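We now fix the convention by which a protein and its fold are recorded. The integers have meaning only within a learned vocabulary of local backbone shapes. The record below shows the convention in full.
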Amino acid sequence: MKDLLSDIGKGALIGIGISLMFMLALSHSLSFLMIVTFLIFGITVGSSITFSYISTSKFLARFKFYNHLLVRIIHAYTVSGLAFFLVSLIVTRLPWSFFPSVKIAFQASMGVGILGVMICFAFEYVAEKDERIRLEQENRELTLIEERNRIARELHDSVSQNLFGISLHLNTLHLILQEQPEKVKALISQVKEMVGEAQTEMRLMIYELQPVILQEKGFFEALETLCELFRTRYNMAITCLFSGDETKMDIQTQVALYRVIQEALHNIVKHAQATKAQVTLNITNTGISTQIKDNGQGFLREQSETKGHFGLQGMEERISALQGKLHLSSRLGEGTVITLQIPH
């Protein structure tokens, strides 16, 4: 209802503009009463056309034939011209009417019908644009929520467990400090190791939450830093092979590729039980090709959507948004290869 009233208000303003156009074109001498009549006429015409068009559009949208452009043009022309003519009929009965006859009012309504088509289509364009912006905003919010939920799960699964373990070790350290001093050094070493793991895990998560590194560093350098974090955290051999001109990639493509490679590495260290991985990226004049492969245990496609993770579907959606393609090849016991192709 709020949007409808807003549109009717805009239609009333346009109607005033149309009315002023007729006032300047048809009237040689203007009185206060004539000016007020023009303003009321414009508000009434604009509101009537807007309300009639929106109401009938919602009804006709249920039928497939209304998707045809010609049908919509005829509809907008008919509604605009008819609404203008009906209001004009009332004005022709006034002693100071600016329409000398019904015939003149009808001819004017035919011209207004053409103008109405353009105005109605402009309203539709603005409405569709606003709807796209709203949907994009909702998608960004959903993506942000997904990222927060994933980080929260990671914190619970890794850092919080490490901190809980550190707390237990410190309690034990307090108890054995006097009774078994020979075990204190070993326990302190374990606590230091757990603290180091928690710090590394936190650095990795903070890095994931701040892809601004793509603006601070080159794309290849940012990927190399990402791989180095995985090497350090998970003690896995990761080879990076990059070639081409990274300046040919826009920021949208960089962020999408960065997130896909990041998710692929996450899946490798958490599910593949791999000891080696390789990230290859080649930028040419025709497009971008990327490959992420590992020597892990492999999996079946139906097992790829692991509960609580971004998953293969999300990776495919990111690449599809760039008009690219993602191909996955995996066999049990033979590792997994993910291949990406993105055109320029």
Observations:
- The CA atoms of residues 81 and 111 lie 8 Å apart.
- The longest strand covers residues 335-343.
- The beta strands are 237-243, 276-283, 287-294, 325-331, 335-343.
